[in-house]
Amino acid sequence: MFGINSRIVVVGLPQVAAALGADAEQAIWFTQAYMFASTVALFLVGRASDIFGRVKIYVVGFALFTLGAALSGLSSNPIQVIIFRGLQGFGGGIISTVGVTMIVDAAPPGELGFFLGLNQSAFRLGAMFGLTLSGVLLTLLDWRALFLINIPIGIFGTLWAGRRLREVARVEKQSPIDWGGFITVSAAIASLLLALTFAAYGIAHQNTVWFLLVVFAATLTIFFVHESRAEYPLFDLSLLKIREFLGGNLAQLLNAAAWGAVLLLLSLYLQLVLGFSPFEAGIRLIPFEITYFVVGVISGKLSDKFGCLPFTTSGLAVTSLSLFLFSTMDAQTSYQMVIGYMLVFGVGMGVFASPNVSSIMGCVPPERKGIGSAFRTTMFNVGYLTSLSLAVLLMSLTIPYDLLTQIVTSIDPVSIGAAERHLFVEAMQKTYLGLAVLNTLAIVPSVLRGKGNRSRRDRS
Q1: Residue 145 three-state SS
Q2: Cα 358 to chain center, whole Å?
Q3: What is the Cα Rg of the chain in Å?
Q4: Which of 73, 95, 120, 368 could form a disulfide with 144 if both were Cys (CB 3.0 to 4.6 A apart)?
Q5: Measured in whole angstroms, how far is the alpha carbon of residue 199 from the centre of its chain?
Q6: Architecture of domain 2-177+234-459
Q7: Domain ranges of the chain
Q8: Cβ contact 361:112 at 8 Å
Q9: Residue 113 · residue 303 · CB < 8 Å
């Protein structure tokens, strides 16, 4: 479900925006709201799973995810979709965070990378299905079906999780929740994500961006001071002293900031430049997902045997190469060449992702797995949201905002003139180059994390 919903709106974004009369800002918020809400409360979710148990929190997340999807499909204007996508994203954040924690709890010693690779594969299968399902639903029904399709699956999943999952982790039932820490860190994350989003909309929001950045700095400082003195802190600051944990999270943050917008850019390129329909565009993105799926399982298994560092670093290098190759695409590039670039992209991401998660989670003490997973997911989501905002910002340096709105919300490629299409291609190329540079920077913390302590990971 999480994989399907991460892709189903990417392909159908122009259709949803056009049907609701949304501008470019609102259209981007259809995806931003999902990631934003799934990020803000993750520290509370992670800590709550350590205290109350994983299964209860997971079932609640599944139910909220389903409810948010249903309300999104019943919305009548862009603002409603944004609000209810946020509710769906909050549930999705619980699913992704607590789900990984439960897998870490249950993985046999020495097989954590393989089990996390299977989890990544489940996501990839859902993502592939979402790319094709989006086009089918838009062809046969309308945009509301993109969300309403979740209702029967979500009801079954919620009931099944509640009946079949069993708690295997040791919980801290007597530990209170650190509400002061939750309020300050949530304010910090929210102000940062809002600042990044408003920064993408140009000079008109400059004062708002600076104000939000000041709020971010102030609340983050208060959070760290509070956590250093709290008896039962929301986040164990000692985790940041673990080089493997810190390096892996920094690498993940920069990598997510580099690749989060890639599939949206590819979808727009396939539809508006190469002239494919939404269904055709979704089908043509599948080579990336298949490659990511296959390579992710293999790299997860191999990293258990040979260590994570060779895979995380080489995966980042290959991903940077693929982003550079994407920057060479134009209206004359054949789809066969695009497939080749997507395969390179899938290999790079597949080699990096599972070993990096294994490296991060494997060095966290058992009693801190929940909050460790929440921190990891937060870093990914912040990076992912940054990628979308950064892509809009970089493109708006070449394309006037009104034209960008026209392109993003267009459902008919013929309506985009040759000059406008050329501007879009030029902006896209520059954006990919910027993302390639950003991803290359992730190699530094990946290398500096060291080889890690395998025996400690296996015991965890």
Answers
A1: helix
A2: 17
A3: 21
A4: 73
A5: 19
A6: Up-down Bundle (1.20)
A7: 2-177+234-459, 178-233
A8: yes
A9: yes
Q: Could you tell me how many residues make up the chain?
A: 460
From the list 179, 297, 295, the residue with the least C-alpha distance to 230 is 179
Tokens read off for 413 = 């490629």
Task: Kindly state the tokens that stand for 436.
Answer: 């390639």
> How far is residue 207 from each of residues 168, 169, 214, measured CA to CA in Å?
49, 47, 11
CB 442 within 8 A of CB 251: yes
In sequence order, what DSSP letters do the residues of 73-137 get, joined into one string?
HT--SHHHHHHHHHHHHHHHHHHHHHHHHHHHHHPPTT-HHHHHHHHHHHHHHHHHHHHHHHHHH
Among candidates 314, 299, 313, which has minimal Cα distance to 124?
A: 299
Residue 143 in contact with residue 283, Cβ under 8 Å? Answer: no
Residue 393 to residue 434: CA distance in whole angstroms? 11
Asked if 379 contacts 239 with a C-beta cutoff of 8 angstroms, the reply is no
Cα first-last separation, the chain: 28
Per-residue pLDDT 10s for the chain (460 aa) are 877 777 777 667 777 888 888 876 777 778 778 877 877 777 778 777 877 788 888 999 999 999 999 999 998 888 999 999 989 988 988 888 888 888 888 888 777 777 877 787 787 777 777 767 777 787 788 888 888 988 998 899 899 988 888 887 776 666 677 788 888 888 888 888 788 777 766 655 678 889 999 999 999 999 889 888 887 777 778 888 888 999 999 999 999 999 888 988 888 888 888 888 777 887 888 888 888 888 888 888 888 888 888 899 999 999 999 999 999 998 889 989 999 999 999 999 999 988 898 888 888 887 777 778 778 888 887 888 788 778 877 887 777 766 776 666 665 555 667 777 788 888 889 999 999 999 999 999 998 887 654 434 443 4
Largest CA distance in the chain: 65
Q: Which residue has the tokens 């990984």?
A: 100
Task: List CB contacts of 32: < 8 A, sequence separation 6 or more.
Answer: 197, 385, 388, 389
Cβ neighbours of 166 (radius 10 Å): 8
For the entire predicted model, the pTM comes to: 0.75
The residue with tokens 């060095």 is 363
User: What whole-number distance in Å separates Cα of residue 155 and Cα of residue 159?
Assistant: 6
Look-up: residue for tokens 């329909």? 277
